[in-house]
Design a protein that fits this description.
- The protein is an alpha/beta fold.
- The protein has eleven helices and eight strands.
- The protein has a single domain, classed as TIM Barrel (Alpha-Beta Barrel), CATH 3.20.20.70.
- Strands 1-2-3-4-5-6-7-8 form an eight-stranded parallel beta barrel, surrounded by six helices.
- Helix 1 links the parallel strand 1 and strand 2.
- The protein is globular.
Length: about 220
Amino acid sequence: MRFFLDTADIEEIRTGLEWGMVDGVTTNPSLIAREGRSYLPTVREIAELVPGPVSGEVLATDYEGMLEQGRRLAELGDNVVVKVPLGPAGLRVVQTLRQEGTLCNVTLCFSAPQALLAAKAGAAYISPFVGRVDDIGGVGMELIAEILTIYRQYDFETEVLVASVRHPEHLLQAALLGAEVATIPFGVLAKLYRHPLTDIGLERFLADWQKTGKTFDD
């Protein structure tokens, strides 16, 4: 499974890359606005920093506007993936950009039929929002299971990019189901390293060695 960071925070991205656990980045208008940064320059900076795919989202909602913005995003780097919202205009943009050789990530997916449409349109990635499904009383991971079943049934090339990940359990369930990618906030990535028994074990190892009075070289 590949891990993408869902962020526009450059320092979070640098740290994730140093840890060796970041395969790509997804960002969106909300995340960039939170950082108080300019839009296209931020996507460009991230694309230059990250060797893997970087999803930058269009801001327009009509076909012509999304297509024009998608082309401009694609010019920022060979690794830029154009993120478009699910809907008739968005999937039409996916088809056009695919013919031009540009990969697209279809976002704001909340149902398996929506994911089927995105795959038929030629999306490189589909981004189901599991946390938001949970928020309205659904089960986000059931949505992932349904999409994966459909995609495998028909050998679609579209990869499932699990989004709106709120906690490590979401990531665990996505991995067990076989999702290709998960995009996660930096805080969730950091939590993956943690377990109380790991902390206790490390403390005991160090305490036992200190009792010997020896150094590492002894």
